[in-house]
Amino acid sequence: MEAARVAVLGDLGRLTRLARTAVEEAGSRRGGAELVGSWSAAGDGLIERALSSCLSDPTRAVWVGTVDDQVMGLSVCSGPEGQSGQLHLFFVEPGARGVGVGESMLNKVIGWLQARGCTGLDVPVLPGDRNTKQFFEGASMVARLLVMHRPL
User: Fold this and answer.
1) Is pTM, for the whole model, over 0.85?
2) Is residue 147 part of a domain?
């Protein structure tokens, strides 16, 4: 059964592996290098420290998505009161996609942001990533900004 729960320090090793996989997956797509930036070159130690910091930061929330109590997804967001929240990291293992893990985590994100008095939720999605775009559209989200770029 799929579910989502608040991440705890004991999840840190699994969170680090999921984040590394997310960075590698995003970095291989069009626009991904800009999205993941220095994360792509960062070692697992830096990713682990960043996630550990998020776990102890009251302005951020970290959830894990589970299937039969096995951690299969990760989400990290922030949400200043009265502003739109930001989804900084949202990833589900490929084998656990399409079964409700992402939906469970997104529901936790939305509930947390609503409780903080946030006005919305912004999520970066890479161009050409139709599956992710369709997932968020299925959650009543719409594209409101496209950023065009030309390398010089």
Assistant:
1) yes
2) no
Residue 23 resides in a domain: yes
Identify which of 88, 64, 66 has the alpha carbon closest to the alpha carbon of residue 74: 64
What pLDDT shows up at residue 46? 83
Among residues 145, 71, 64, 140, the alpha carbon closest in space to that of 109 is found at: 64
DSSP-derived secondary structure letter, 61: E
Identify the residue whose tokens are 């589970």: 66
Tally of domains within the chain: 1
In 3D space, the residue among 91, 95, 78, 98 whose CA is nearest the CA of residue 17 turns out to be 91
Per DSSP, the residues of 77-127 read EE--TTSEEEEEEEEE-GGGTTTTHHHHHHHHHHHHHHHTT--EEE----T
Q: For residue 44, what is the domain's CATH number?
A: 3.40.630.30
Q: Using CA atoms, how far apart are residues 2 and 102, in angstroms rounded to an integer?
A: 9
Among residues 89, 65, 63, 77, which one has the least CA distance to residue 118?
Answer: 77
* Domain assignment present for 132: yes
> Residues of the chain whose pLDDT is less than 50?
none
Q: Cα angle at 129 between 124 and 133, to 5 degrees? A: 60
